[in-house]
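Justification of computing resources. Each target in the renewal requires a structure prediction run like the one illustrated here; the chain below, 100 residues long, is used simply to show the kind of job we budget for.
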Amino acid sequence: MYGDKVTILGFPANNFGGQEPGTNLQIAEFCKANYGVTFQMFEKISVKGADQHPLYEWLKEKTGEEPSWNFCKYLVKPDGSVKFFKSSVKPMDKQILDNI
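Resulting structure tokens:
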């Protein structure tokens, strides 16, 4: 629906209850088979804690928010502003769509 305006990037992390202990390939295959993921999946990183990846340090600095569970979302706009959405907010939720 918004393919010309939005690029989705997936960053697996094993920070939440050890839910993603597999390899990058195993995680990508699981996401494709179980969730129909077609967007780009990156290598597993740490999204919070002492070993937090610099990308998530930047996102936290911009929003004051860091992931509290899997499937949290950040919308980075062309002007550099960033919006955070909790994992309970679905990808096609009005909250997100209104910000695109």
